[in-house]
Amino acid sequence: MIIRNVNDYLYVNIEDFNKTKIDNNLIxxxxxxxxxxxxxxxxxxxxxxxxxxxxFKKFYLGDLDLDESLKKKLNITYLENNSTKLFSxxxxxxxxxxLLNEEIKKKNNVSILDIGCGNxxxxxxxxxxxxxxxxxxxxxxxxxxxxxxxxxxxxKDKTFDIVFTSQAIEHFYNPFLAFNEISRxxxxxxxxxxxxxxxxxxxxxxxxxxxxHALYNLCKINDLEMVHFWHTESGWxxxxxxxxxxxxxKIKYIANVxxxxxxxxxxxxxxxxxxxxxxxxxxxSFGFFAKKNSDLNKIKNENLNLNDRYARTNKL
Length: 316
What we know:
27% helix; globular; 9 helices; 12 strands; Rossmann fold; 2 domains; three-stranded mixed β-sheet
């Protein structure tokens, strides 16, 4: 689809930049919009908050079901709970689909920026949900409308209603800079719908795999209030599956089956609450929904326990 009024979103002139050819697609290349030797400055609190793991339970959406009209609109056949992707291989992630639909319904002429768009499959879904303008960006993808660097985005302040980023945050070489930029380009009532790897094995150019504390603080430091948070399946099997013994076993869904058995055994000896805590500490990935909140209370050092702030011995 054609980007509508792309220049309305940019603070640079797109005509000043060359196009880069990726698999026969010529894409405006805005990855470097400042002097390469210029160092970007970032300010953030000296101390970060480390809330108790149980706080993330209050953000959890629980099991959702999409209404039939939405399923029909998107031609949904397969759904997956606790997913950190909107759409992949004809399977829709319930949480992301639900949250995007609810947010788009609240506003008119919704603009969405997809950071790390990959193969661009989400664009059609965004438009079907009612978005009016969608811009796909990536650092290196033939499906992107613009090639950009998330650490130095070419967009004006307070431009987008929604920033969407699925399984890309772990690839940001400086997530503090990236979230600062994301917050900057969001409107005062804008939201972020995103996800990041945690116990997923190192892949591609992944730098920082994010724990719940990491995502919570990346949001809070940058005036983004976490509203929802969810986990995928346990990640320990994903890590084991990378070892040679599992590579030789060509059994489809082996990781899912073993994860299912593991959860059942755990629940037999532990409570549901304990099982949820287990998932928080062993999840493959996390999804989150955060809203812009410039009035968000800043971190107050006097409210933090000095002994637990960065201790390795925190109780789980």
